[in-house]
Every structure is written in structure tokens, then in C-alpha cells.
Amino acid sequence: MTESIPPSTTLGAVNLTVSNLDRLLDWYQRVLGFKIHQREGDVARLGTGRDDLLVLMERPGVRKYRGTTGLYHYAVLLPSRRELALTIARLLAYRYPNSPTDHVMTETTYLDDPEGNGIEIYTDTPEDGTFGMVNGEFVTVDSNGVRRSGRDPLNVKELIQKNTTSDDRLDEPLPETAKIGHVHLHVRELNEARRFYHELLGFDDMGFAPAMGAGFVSAGGYHHHIGFNIWVGEGAPPPPPDATGLRYFTVMLPNSAELEKVVEHVQLAGIVTAQTEGGILVHDPSRNGVLLTQHSE
What we know:
Elements: E1 10-18, H1 21-32, E2 35-40, E3 43-47, E4 52-58, E5 70-77, H2 81-93, E6 99-102, E7 106-112, E8 118-124, E9 129-134, E10 137-142, E11 147-148, E12 152-153, H3 156-163, E13 179-186, H4 190-200, E14 204-209, E15 214-218, E16 226-229, E17 245-253, H5 256-268, E18 274-275, E19 280-283, E20 289-294
Parallel strand pairs: 1-4, 5-8, 13-16, 17-20
Antiparallel strand pairs: 1-17, 2-3, 3-4, 5-13, 6-7, 6-12, 7-8, 9-10, 10-11, 14-15, 15-16, 18-19, 19-20
Helix pairs in contact: 2-3
């Protein structure tokens, strides 16, 4: 097993193949408050005005497939409950379907974009309690020591009342400090996914639950940067070439030396790597793409 990935490792932009770029650019700006950083032909970069969070690449004739490996959801981490309250209020104003959920250690809402890409928008709330894996079981305990399901509906009315005012605008862009907090993947087999992300890339094992059909890894003790599950079925095939959805997500190492160390370990394991303009592209055993790069100097 490789040594642990540096604790300052973070996630960068998620790269998606889409069928209708114009439609998604309108939706991401209007409904979620993303900004367009750059558009060149059939490729657009979106984010907060500072960091790219999404790269959308339009391809003719692509479509959504079910029952394959790929993206379960990508998660945008907001800096505060206030930002989450404003986001949910905005979604409610558009009557856009979403599922606000109280995980105790995080508060969140789940939704799909118009092409079916899963999205989580959340804020960390560790002062309210903890969640994690205990003997392969997902356990959530609040700050009073009371065990909770970790999947209760979020009290949206209370969240909005406590964290917003009538003067707040709902059409403001995402805060600049919003970032990709984690990604959650559909994989074909749990043990090989764990070997790839934990033993090969070096992410810390934050919980492995075969009975639940999921596992979680992270850098620096975070609750999870990458989740993986077999919820579409063990042995699920990769999406075909004409599929919409995940092309790759980005793992950002702190510097070139740490990047080279991880890439060398991957290559010694016989994993095919490809040099791209943005970094080194690899694929996990379920054909989910991972772009290995470094933080901007």
C-alpha cells in the first residue's frame, strides 16, 4: 500500500459530457448561481468566479444510460448554513425538485440537473454531531449523544427563517469560496474500488460497509472526499461511448513532487496513464476517470 495521500489534497473540477450545452448553461446560472468562466465552442467552464467547479463538454448524439458505473453525484460544499438556506430558497422559488436532508454532521439537499447528473449541495455542521462507520454500519450521533438516522428530512422552514432575511436576493451567484467537497461514484465492485482509491492512490479509509454497499475515503481526516457504491448492481458495466455523464473528476495534490509520487505508484501497479493538458488521467477499475493534478502555484 502507498503512504497516505497528503492531507491538503482536495478535489477540483468535475468534467461532464452533455447533450445540450446551452440548456445546461442557462440552468446552472439561473437555478444554482454558477458563473460561466469560459466558453469555447462546445466546451464551457463554470464555477464561482474563482475556481472551476464544472467543465461541460457537448457531444452530438449522446444520451443518458441507466444501470452503469459513473457519477452518483458530485457535491458542492458551501461555506455556511446561510448559503445553503439561500440555495434551497432559490430552488423552492423555481419549484425545482430537491430533497433537503439532515445528516447531522452536514446539512444538504439533493437534486439532478436537467440531464440527470446527480448533485448534492451541502454545508458542514460538525458542531451538531458526527457520522461514520462502526463495524460496517453507518452511525450518526448528535451533539447530545443521541443516535440519529442521519437521513432525516431537513427542517427547511427553520433553516431559512434563522439564516436569511426578507432583503436577501435569491439571484446572487454562488459564493467564491464554494468548492467541490466530494464526489460519489457508482462502481462495479466494492473491494476493487477500495483497493484503487485507498491502497493505490492513498486516500484514507473512512468506512467500508459491504452490507450497505458503499465505502468512503478522504484526505486529511475529512468525512469523505470520495464515496463509492454498488447501488446500480454489482458487476455494473461502464457507460458506452455515446453516454452523457462523468468524463472525470479532479484530484489536486499539493505540489508537483507529491503528484509525481502518486503517478509513479499508479504506473508501477500497471495502471495506464495519459498525459493531458490538465494533468495525468487514469481510470479506476469501473472506468471512472480521475485527473491527477496539482494545486496552482
